[in-house]
């Protein structure tokens, strides 16, 4: 029996948990629809990254068996089986939700189901809003075809009955990045129409220069390999190299082609030829609509009962309505937990630093930021206020490369010192260091977090932020930022666990201490919360601790390659996954340590890339009150019997049910912080 669960199979199991949320009738209907969007978006990324990676690994031969724990061809077959099963479940769930929406007065219509009044409205909307953004690509024998990755298109056939020679073909991109994918048609009832069908209704207008009796349209979508090939050219800047690679991604190898099952053979053949599909791609016939990821942004439609009840973020009691946030942090450590608490506190701390006369410098690492980032605007203003601002920005954050290139240029144009990561290592840490000078004495305030400095995702992603003036941490943060500027120097971190320098070794040591303590009959236990657990070395250490008798509890949201509860290997390990309204994103480690608990939070999952190929920062929590807060939050998750699933070797995603009163940990955690705010 293999010791590990294949990463790709475990990932698909995670996405099935997302699909379960769409199937869960206790969730509001529109939120269920949005979970289908998240599921679809995840599946797209799976093809772009994981399927593409496996296909590249096929060329490596025997070495891939060890990495994948199986034959890659057999793995692809198993993946296809799971994907087909999930697609059927997706279709049934979508139909079920549509029926529920219809019962609540919300009806989806296509271009053939409109009343005359509705048709007039849609045609007017098409001419004013949609038509200006449509540029058909005519598919002639000489034309070249470059299809945007992961966008949805309408393949068009224009013809007259019985006159094959005059048939023309075209392709139109559905501009859902510019125009909302869903049109709400005004009227007594709530009527919704896909943008695809708005375009279908206006096709005669688009092709009015031609004289054809029939215009037919069929949805298609092409997914390409998302891996970037960054050429090492010494005479180019990293920004230029990355910009080239992002552009190349648009022409990368296809990994999936989806088309409407009713598409005629002649049109399908032309697309196959034009797109140079070899037959090795996943060529799938599906339904009328593709790109269901757009369901993520499905409108509320003014139906409050069909969406989650509003839960405004709670204020941190010690940061609310105080004169100086920096002075509060100087006196004691502060832990924030988003979205249960307000991310605005972090923005306000940086805003204060931007105008505080005693602040001399602000240093920060950035991986993903909001489109109109308040964080970055604050840093730009700090620079204009003569603060020395240093931003370490990771240009290689997958799918955010172009966005980060834009912000890097904007920061540089405003006098900010921008560092483009570290050669050979992605900078994934979430850290800040603020320097103040008071009466010739320097003071430092630091931040270590588990999530991105992104005010938009902070309303959905559940993350922790530690703000501290503790010199044990700020000294190490100062060394880290020195390293970003001087990669050639060696640095020793005394308190922080920093990948790839000392994180792996320290985690090994912490587990070894628990094993030794258990043998010495001292308090010994391990509680770990992560997004993903894949690293073989660390899994082996957990197996060793389990075999030594140490009780281990794991909360893993996503991929888990560890097999829990296997006799003689992992019988002392329990693993659950909690998935619900919020995306649980924080990484936490708690070790009993013989009764003197050690608690850590940070940016690193337990994956090879996080331990060895990225700059990650994990910080110890010293304040016993904060440790107790973290334990209270984790205990809610461990007791969850509504949104918690059991993760074992069978990957059945069974809900953790018991006879106790229903406990939804995300609701309980919100209420926990609400009481804290009100106290």
Write the CATH homologous superfamily of the largest domain: Polyphosphate kinase middle domain
Shape: globular
Q: Name the poorly predicted regions.
A: 228-238, 245-250
Q: Specify the helix fraction band.
A: 25-40%
Structural class: alpha/beta
Strand content: 15-25%
Total strands: 27
CATH topology of the largest domain: polyphosphate kinase like
The CATH level-2 architecture of the largest domain is identified as: 2-Layer Sandwich
Q: In whole angstroms, how far apart are the ends?
A: 53 Å
- The mean pLDDT is 91
What is the level 1 CATH name of the largest domain?
Alpha Beta
What can you see in these coordinates?
The protein has 679 residues and is an alpha/beta fold. The chain has four domains: 1-104, Up-down Bundle (Methane Monooxygenase Hydroxylase, Chain G, domain 1); 108-297, Polyphosphate kinase middle domain (polyphosphate kinase like); 325-485, Endonuclease, Chain A (2-Layer Sandwich); 497-678, Endonuclease, Chain A. α1 packs parallel to α4 (72-103) and α2 (29-58) packs antiparallel against α4.
Task: Supply database-style keywords.
single chain, 679 residues, alpha/beta, Methane Monooxygenase Hydroxylase, Chain G, domain 1, polyphosphate kinase like, Endonuclease, Chain A, 4 domains, 10-stranded mixed β-sheet, 8-stranded mixed β-sheet, 19 helices
